Predict the 3D structure of the following.
Amino acid sequence: MLNKLTHIVLLTLFTGLILGVFYPLAGQNRAEIPGGSFHSVLPEVKGEPNEVELFHLDQTAVTNGQFLEFLKENPDWRRSYTPALYAENGYLKHWKSDLDYGDESLQGLPVTRVSWFAANAYCGWKSGRLPTLNEWEYAAQLMDHESAVEADQFSADLIGWYSAVDTDKTQPVASTGIENRHGVKDMFGLVMEWVEDFQPPIGEDISIDCGTMGTMKGDNSIYSYAMSIRYVTRMSFKPTSTTGMLGFRCAYNQQPEL
Amino acid sequence: MNRTKKLSLTLFAFFLLPTALLAQHGHGNHTNNNALNPKEVNMEHSLFHMSANWTNHRNETLKLSDFSGNPVVIVMYYGNCVQVCPILIRDANRVFKAVDESLRKNVRVLAVTFDPQNDTIERLHAYAEEKELNIPEWHFITGNRSDIRELAMLLGVEYTKKGDGHFAHSNLVTVLDDEGKIIHRLEGLNQPVDEAAKYIETILNTNPDGRSHQNLD
C-alpha cells in the first residue's frame, strides 16, 4: 500500500519534471536558425554576403485560429476598431465578424488580409517580432535538394507559383510538404509573408521590368530569378495592404527583446 | 556593320541605361543621395492612435496621445551614429528654435532611437545632457522593437541594421499638428526650417494654450 503510494508520487514528480523541461519548447513550435550568411539579389555591398545572426522562427505561418486569440486580448486590432491608419478596408474581410472567422475549416489556414501593422503587433504581443527580410531569405534558402536538377525544378515551380498565387485555394499550414533543414515549413507554396523591413533601403526605383530585374544582383540561377520576383513583389506592398496572398510568421531573438 | 551595331548596343547598356536609372533617382527634390529616401505616408490620420508605451530619458512612461493638443516634432536617430544623427538632432532643434519664443513651450520634440539595445535610459539621458537638450519640451525616447518599427513605418522612415551594428536610415524630421496628423516633413539634412516653424506657429496661434483634447480620426 505504502509502496504503491510512493510509486504514484514518484511517477507524478517524474512526469512533472519531464513536462516542465520539454513542454515550453514543444508548445512553441519554433525552429532555431543558426547564424550564417547568404547572397541577396539586392546590390547592397558588392559581392559581400549578408550576415545573419542566430534567431528563432515560427515553424508555420500564423493561423486564423491563432490570430483570433490575439484579437480576443487586443480589441484595438479587431476589424471594426482598427483605424485606416493601420489597415485598408479589406482587413480580415473574409471573417464573419470581429471575433468569428466563420467556417471552422479556416482555423488551421494561414491568416491573410492582415496589414503589416497588424502582423507586427501580433508578433510584439508574442514577445517576438517579424523576421527581418534578410532573416527570412536566409532561412528560406536553407533547403536541401537531392540534386542540382531537382533544385532547378523546384525554383522553376516557384516562379510559376509567384506568378499566380491563388488566394482561393489556400491550404492549411504545414500542408505543402516544403520544409527547410531546420523544420521551418511552407516558406514557399502557401502564402507570401510579411517581413519587418519589406521595403529595404534600396527599394525606391525597383519594379518588375526587365531593365530593373537585370540590375538586380544574382548568380543567374533560376532560384535567383524567383528570388528577384519575390523581392520586387514584396516592395510593391504598402504597410496597410491587406491582400489574400499575404500572411506572416514571427521571429524571436535568442535573448528576449528589451 | 554588325560589329558597329553590337558596339552601340553595348555602349547603350553601359552608359545610357545607368544614366536612365540615375535620372529616376533624381525624382526627389532633395539632394542627399547617400541617404535613404523617405516613403510616402498617410497624412490624413492621426498618429495619436498609436497605443504603444514609450520611455523617455527622464524614465517617464508616455504614449503619443499624451501630446494631443501640442504640435510635435519627431526625429528618429541612434546614439552610436556620430556623423549624421547629430545633424538630425540639430535640425529638429533648429525647427524648435525657429518657433517664436513665446509659443515654444507648447511644442514637443521627440527624438526616438532605432537602437533600443544600446540606447538605454541612461544613455538617452547622457545624450540629452551632452546636446544641452535635457529640457522639458524634449523627450529622448526608446520603446520595444516592434513599436519603434511601427512608428518608423507611420513616418515613412526606412532603416535597416547592418552587419557592423550601424543602421542605414532615412534622414527625416516630421512635424505633427496638434491632432497628431503629419503636416510637414523635412527630407534630408540641414534643410530650411522656416516653413516648419510657420506651420507650428499657426497651430499655436489658433490654439495658444495647446492641450485641448480633440477627437482622433
Notes: The beta strands of chain B are 54-56, 61-62, 72-77, 108-113, 138-142, 159-161, 167-169, 172-176, 182-187. Chain B touches chain A at residues 17, 20-21, 24-25, 36-37, 39, 42, 44-47, 49, 51, 116-117, 144-147, 149-150, 153-154, 158-161, 163, 168, 216 (CB under 8 Å). The longest helix of chain B spans residues 2-25. Helices of chain B lie at 2-25, 85-98, 121-130, 145-155, 194-206.
